[in-house]
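ARCHIVE CARD
Drawer: 12
Card no.: 0347
Subject: one protein chain, sequence and derived structure
Cross-reference: see card 0346
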Amino acid sequence: MSALVLALLAGGLTGLALGALGGGGSMLAVPAMIYLLGFSPVAATTAGLVVVTLTSVTALVTHARGGAVRWREGALFATAGLVPAAIGGAVSGRLPAGALTGAFAVVAALAAVRMLRPSASVRPDGMPVRTSHVARAGAGLGAVTGVLGVGGGFLAVPALVNVVGLRMRAAVGTSLLVITVNSLAALATRAGTSVDVDWGAVAPFAATAVLGAWDGRRLAAKVSAGALQRTFAVALLAVAAFMLADAVR
Protein backbone atom coordinates (compact mmCIF):
# COMPACT_ATOMS: atom_id res chain seq x y z
CA MET A 1 0.00 0.00 0.00
CA SER A 2 1.51 3.34 -1.06
CA ALA A 3 2.27 6.16 1.36
CA LEU A 4 -0.32 8.35 -0.38
CA VAL A 5 -3.09 5.78 0.12
CA LEU A 6 -2.13 5.41 3.80
CA ALA A 7 -2.12 9.18 4.18
CA LEU A 8 -5.59 9.38 2.61
CA LEU A 9 -6.85 6.78 5.07
CA ALA A 10 -5.28 8.71 7.92
CA GLY A 11 -6.97 11.87 6.65
CA GLY A 12 -10.33 10.12 6.69
CA LEU A 13 -9.75 8.93 10.26
CA THR A 14 -8.74 12.46 11.27
CA GLY A 15 -12.04 13.85 10.05
CA LEU A 16 -14.00 10.94 11.48
CA ALA A 17 -12.56 11.53 14.95
CA LEU A 18 -13.18 15.29 14.84
CA GLY A 19 -16.73 14.84 13.59
CA ALA A 20 -17.64 12.14 16.09
CA LEU A 21 -15.68 13.14 19.19
CA GLY A 22 -15.05 16.87 18.75
CA GLY A 23 -11.29 16.34 18.86
CA GLY A 24 -8.39 13.94 18.70
CA GLY A 25 -8.14 13.80 14.92
CA SER A 26 -5.06 15.96 14.68
CA MET A 27 -3.26 13.45 16.88
CA LEU A 28 -3.37 11.19 13.84
CA ALA A 29 -2.78 13.91 11.24
CA VAL A 30 0.63 15.08 12.47
CA PRO A 31 2.22 11.60 12.83
CA ALA A 32 0.81 10.59 9.43
CA MET A 33 2.44 13.60 7.80
CA ILE A 34 5.76 12.91 9.49
CA TYR A 35 6.01 9.16 8.88
CA LEU A 36 3.90 8.66 5.74
CA LEU A 37 4.51 11.90 3.82
CA GLY A 38 8.04 12.58 5.09
CA PHE A 39 7.31 16.03 6.53
CA SER A 40 9.55 17.58 9.18
CA PRO A 41 7.88 17.98 12.60
CA VAL A 42 7.54 21.76 12.09
CA ALA A 43 6.03 21.33 8.60
CA ALA A 44 3.73 18.58 9.88
CA THR A 45 2.37 20.71 12.73
CA THR A 46 1.79 23.62 10.34
CA ALA A 47 0.02 21.43 7.80
CA GLY A 48 -1.86 19.78 10.67
CA LEU A 49 -3.28 23.16 11.67
CA VAL A 50 -4.59 23.67 8.13
CA VAL A 51 -6.23 20.23 8.09
CA VAL A 52 -7.68 20.71 11.57
CA THR A 53 -9.08 24.14 10.68
CA LEU A 54 -10.80 22.94 7.50
CA THR A 55 -12.12 19.80 9.16
CA SER A 56 -13.30 21.58 12.30
CA VAL A 57 -15.25 24.14 10.27
CA THR A 58 -16.94 21.32 8.37
CA ALA A 59 -17.80 19.42 11.55
CA LEU A 60 -18.90 22.66 13.25
CA VAL A 61 -21.47 23.28 10.51
CA THR A 62 -22.98 19.82 10.93
CA HIS A 63 -23.16 20.13 14.73
CA ALA A 64 -24.58 23.67 14.52
CA ARG A 65 -27.37 22.44 12.28
CA GLY A 66 -28.30 20.00 15.02
CA GLY A 67 -28.34 22.76 17.64
CA ALA A 68 -25.32 21.33 19.47
CA VAL A 69 -23.13 24.47 19.54
CA ARG A 70 -23.21 26.96 22.43
CA TRP A 71 -21.81 30.04 20.71
CA ARG A 72 -21.52 32.37 23.70
CA GLU A 73 -19.69 29.89 25.94
CA GLY A 74 -17.49 28.75 23.06
CA ALA A 75 -16.51 32.32 22.17
CA LEU A 76 -15.53 33.06 25.78
CA PHE A 77 -13.41 29.93 25.99
CA ALA A 78 -11.78 30.49 22.60
CA THR A 79 -10.97 34.14 23.25
CA ALA A 80 -8.85 33.16 26.25
CA GLY A 81 -6.71 30.96 24.00
CA LEU A 82 -6.02 33.43 21.19
CA VAL A 83 -2.81 34.98 22.54
CA PRO A 84 -1.32 31.68 23.87
CA ALA A 85 -2.08 30.02 20.51
CA ALA A 86 -0.30 32.81 18.65
CA ILE A 87 2.71 32.68 20.99
CA GLY A 88 2.83 28.89 20.74
CA GLY A 89 2.79 29.07 16.97
CA ALA A 90 5.81 31.37 17.03
CA VAL A 91 7.69 29.18 19.54
CA SER A 92 7.06 25.95 17.63
CA GLY A 93 9.32 26.88 14.72
CA ARG A 94 12.26 27.41 17.10
CA LEU A 95 12.06 24.02 18.81
CA PRO A 96 14.38 21.13 17.82
CA ALA A 97 12.66 18.42 15.77
CA GLY A 98 13.29 15.76 18.44
CA ALA A 99 11.84 17.93 21.19
CA LEU A 100 8.73 18.68 19.13
CA THR A 101 8.20 14.99 18.29
CA GLY A 102 8.76 13.94 21.91
CA ALA A 103 6.38 16.60 23.25
CA PHE A 104 3.75 15.57 20.73
CA ALA A 105 4.10 11.91 21.78
CA VAL A 106 3.67 12.77 25.46
CA VAL A 107 0.58 14.89 24.80
CA ALA A 108 -0.87 12.15 22.56
CA ALA A 109 -0.37 9.60 25.34
CA LEU A 110 -2.04 11.91 27.87
CA ALA A 111 -4.92 12.42 25.44
CA ALA A 112 -5.35 8.66 25.09
CA VAL A 113 -5.38 8.16 28.86
CA ARG A 114 -7.88 11.00 29.19
CA MET A 115 -10.14 9.32 26.65
CA LEU A 116 -9.90 5.97 28.42
CA ARG A 117 -10.91 7.62 31.68
CA PRO A 118 -13.52 10.20 30.67
CA SER A 119 -14.96 12.36 33.40
CA ALA A 120 -18.55 11.62 34.26
CA SER A 121 -19.03 14.76 36.33
CA VAL A 122 -21.04 17.70 35.08
CA ARG A 123 -21.26 21.00 36.90
CA PRO A 124 -24.76 21.35 38.40
CA ASP A 125 -27.20 23.63 36.58
CA GLY A 126 -27.34 27.10 38.05
CA MET A 127 -23.81 27.04 39.47
CA PRO A 128 -22.01 30.23 38.38
CA VAL A 129 -19.19 29.89 35.87
CA ARG A 130 -15.90 31.27 37.17
CA THR A 131 -14.41 33.39 34.43
CA SER A 132 -10.90 32.84 35.79
CA HIS A 133 -11.29 29.07 35.46
CA VAL A 134 -12.56 29.39 31.90
CA ALA A 135 -9.67 31.74 31.06
CA ARG A 136 -7.04 29.33 32.43
CA ALA A 137 -8.53 26.35 30.62
CA GLY A 138 -8.84 28.29 27.36
CA ALA A 139 -5.30 29.65 27.60
CA GLY A 140 -3.81 26.22 28.22
CA LEU A 141 -5.66 24.78 25.26
CA GLY A 142 -4.53 27.64 23.03
CA ALA A 143 -0.88 27.09 23.97
CA VAL A 144 -1.07 23.37 23.15
CA THR A 145 -2.72 24.15 19.81
CA GLY A 146 -0.07 26.72 18.87
CA VAL A 147 3.01 24.65 19.74
CA LEU A 148 1.96 21.18 18.61
CA GLY A 149 -0.41 21.97 15.75
CA VAL A 150 -3.27 20.04 17.32
CA GLY A 151 -6.82 21.19 17.81
CA GLY A 152 -6.90 20.16 21.45
CA GLY A 153 -10.45 18.84 21.43
CA PHE A 154 -9.41 16.10 23.85
CA LEU A 155 -8.80 18.91 26.38
CA ALA A 156 -11.59 21.23 25.25
CA VAL A 157 -14.43 18.73 25.62
CA PRO A 158 -13.81 17.81 29.29
CA ALA A 159 -13.07 21.47 30.12
CA LEU A 160 -16.35 22.59 28.55
CA VAL A 161 -18.15 19.90 30.57
CA ASN A 162 -16.48 20.42 33.94
CA VAL A 163 -15.59 24.13 33.86
CA VAL A 164 -18.31 25.66 31.70
CA GLY A 165 -20.97 23.09 32.61
CA LEU A 166 -22.08 21.97 29.16
CA ARG A 167 -23.65 18.60 28.53
CA MET A 168 -21.52 16.20 26.49
CA ARG A 169 -23.37 16.69 23.20
CA ALA A 170 -23.08 20.48 23.45
CA ALA A 171 -19.44 20.24 24.60
CA VAL A 172 -18.48 18.19 21.54
CA GLY A 173 -20.13 20.68 19.17
CA THR A 174 -18.83 23.76 20.99
CA SER A 175 -15.29 22.38 21.14
CA LEU A 176 -15.19 22.57 17.34
CA LEU A 177 -15.70 26.34 17.53
CA VAL A 178 -12.83 26.60 20.03
CA ILE A 179 -10.57 24.40 17.90
CA THR A 180 -11.27 26.48 14.78
CA VAL A 181 -10.47 29.80 16.49
CA ASN A 182 -7.27 28.52 18.14
CA SER A 183 -6.03 26.89 14.95
CA LEU A 184 -6.57 30.07 12.94
CA ALA A 185 -4.67 32.09 15.57
CA ALA A 186 -1.73 29.68 15.46
CA LEU A 187 -1.72 29.66 11.66
CA ALA A 188 -1.71 33.46 11.50
CA THR A 189 1.51 33.49 13.53
CA ARG A 190 3.18 30.90 11.30
CA ALA A 191 2.15 32.64 8.08
CA GLY A 192 5.29 34.76 8.01
CA THR A 193 7.73 31.93 8.74
CA SER A 194 9.63 29.96 6.12
CA VAL A 195 8.25 26.45 6.61
CA ASP A 196 8.66 24.08 3.66
CA VAL A 197 5.29 22.36 3.28
CA ASP A 198 4.28 20.22 0.30
CA TRP A 199 0.74 21.53 -0.11
CA GLY A 200 0.17 19.19 -3.04
CA ALA A 201 0.40 16.29 -0.59
CA VAL A 202 -1.65 18.07 2.08
CA ALA A 203 -4.60 18.79 -0.26
CA PRO A 204 -5.82 15.17 -0.69
CA PHE A 205 -5.22 14.52 3.02
CA ALA A 206 -7.37 17.53 3.91
CA ALA A 207 -10.06 16.53 1.40
CA THR A 208 -10.53 13.07 2.90
CA ALA A 209 -10.49 14.60 6.41
CA VAL A 210 -13.35 16.94 5.46
CA LEU A 211 -15.34 14.04 4.04
CA GLY A 212 -14.64 12.03 7.19
CA ALA A 213 -15.98 14.87 9.35
CA TRP A 214 -19.39 14.60 7.70
CA ASP A 215 -19.49 10.87 8.37
CA GLY A 216 -18.22 11.35 11.92
CA ARG A 217 -21.29 13.35 12.90
CA ARG A 218 -23.55 10.54 11.66
CA LEU A 219 -21.40 7.90 13.35
CA ALA A 220 -21.69 9.71 16.68
CA ALA A 221 -25.47 9.37 16.47
CA LYS A 222 -25.28 5.59 16.00
CA VAL A 223 -22.40 4.45 18.25
CA SER A 224 -21.92 5.29 21.90
CA ALA A 225 -19.37 7.99 22.67
CA GLY A 226 -17.66 5.67 25.14
CA ALA A 227 -17.04 2.96 22.55
CA LEU A 228 -15.70 5.51 20.05
CA GLN A 229 -13.39 7.05 22.64
CA ARG A 230 -11.98 3.71 23.79
CA THR A 231 -11.27 2.54 20.25
CA PHE A 232 -9.58 5.79 19.30
CA ALA A 233 -7.62 5.94 22.57
CA VAL A 234 -6.04 2.53 22.00
CA ALA A 235 -4.92 3.56 18.50
CA LEU A 236 -3.60 6.83 19.89
CA LEU A 237 -1.55 5.06 22.56
CA ALA A 238 0.11 2.97 19.87
CA VAL A 239 0.94 6.11 17.85
CA ALA A 240 2.32 7.86 20.95
CA ALA A 241 4.53 4.89 21.85
CA PHE A 242 5.97 4.74 18.33
CA MET A 243 6.68 8.47 18.23
CA LEU A 244 8.27 8.51 21.68
CA ALA A 245 10.53 5.60 20.76
CA ASP A 246 11.53 7.43 17.57
CA ALA A 247 12.22 10.67 19.47
CA VAL A 248 14.60 9.07 21.98
CA ARG A 249 16.56 7.04 19.42
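Annotation on reverse: The CA atoms of residues 164 and 242 lie 35 Å apart. The two ends are 26 Å apart (CA to CA).
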